[in-house]
Amino acid sequence: MTPVTEPGDDGQPARPDGAARPSARPEGPARPSARPEEPAHASEGAENLAHASALSKESAHPSAVLERPAGSSVRGAPHAPGYRSHRTLPLRVEAMRQLKRRRTLVIAAILAVLPFVLIAAFAIGGDPSGRNNRVTLMDTATASGANFTATVLFVSAGFLLVVPVALFCGDSVASEASWSSLRYLLAAPVPRTRLLLSKLTVALLFSAAAMVLLPLVALGVGTAAYGWGPLQLPTGGALAAGDALPRLALAVAYIFVSQLVTAALAFWLSTVTDAPLGAVGGAVGLTIVGNVLDQVTALEQWRDFLPAHWQFAWADALQPQLDGTGMIQGASVSVAYALVLFALAFRGFGKKDIVS
């Protein structure tokens, strides 16, 4: 009787005597492992990578950010060890960047050349004379270097000095956006408030330097051409040369304060547009509109709320008796508008989606 055999695990019938069945594959040398053992430091690196990936996923979840303990820090986060927001984008670095730009050199050249152009005009046309028997600063331009400086301020305060202020402030943020470098500055990471403060501070410093450069060159060139002497007043009388310099410095300071509204308007436009020319042109255009409205006498007392209405209040500093009432009112109007526009710039930029 033939014994019943049951198939083995490999599907072949088992031997009746229970002997071991030979292997289907001949035994040979042991094959080396297809994947060598990883060293200890490689496995640790893999664990760190997995841990970093988990942290990044955790930080990506909105609720996880709120639930993370205050003492914990993630690499690259604003609270990382050694990170100091006040050390990002130093003023010195931003100032050097703006100083090397071509438009800065062009503005400085124009302001430095203007006094020479006026001296050449007076030399060609002769001494200025009054119109309709009225004496103005222009009529006393060649009396002394101080008079020439006051004349230069008179012809440039209405429009020429508006241009560098609008250019430096309106080009500050919008230029970074037009170069597609704004998002990289913020990813450095530079906080948005820090970025705006650095940009605004440097822009105001360059604007002030432009307003100081013009009268300094005018005083030097005018003194060389017309001599050093007292400041002859159009209304009669004169200010000694020693007293005229502080008065001229006060006039320059007031012109700078009166231009703060233009600076703030240009800076606000610079944060809402990616076109530098649009921000600069918008600020200059609205300043011109304000000058036009100031000429509309039908507005009567409403003109007192226009910054352009007080743009020549600095002439009160060149009177025998100093009267600062007009300058105080003009400075108050300009600063009030400037604070509102600066606040709008910081608030709007803090919520803006930066895509350029």
List the helices and strands and how they pair.
Elements (H helix, E strand, L loop, with lengths): L39 H21 L1 H6 L23 H9 L2 H24 L19 H12 L5 H9 L3 H5 L3 H5 L5 H35 L4 E2 L5 E2 L1 H18 L1 H13 L3 H19 L30 H26 L6
Antiparallel strand pairs: 1-2
Helix pairs in contact: 3-9, 4-9, 5-9, 5-10, 6-9, 6-11, 6-12, 11-12, 11-13
Describe this structure in words.
- The chain is mainly alpha-helical and 356 residues long.
- It has 13 helices and two strands.
- It has a two-stranded antiparallel sheet.
- Strand 1 and strand 2 (238-239) form a beta hairpin.
- The N and C termini lie far apart (92 Å).
- Mean pLDDT is 77; it is low at 1-11, 16-20, 22-30 and 32-78.
Short key terms for the protein model shown above:
globular; two-stranded antiparallel sheet; mainly alpha; 356 residues
Summarize this structure briefly.
The chain is mainly α and 356 residues long.
Distance between the termini: 92 Å
Radius of gyration: 38 Å
Strand content: under 5%
Sheet with most strands: strand arrangement: 1-2
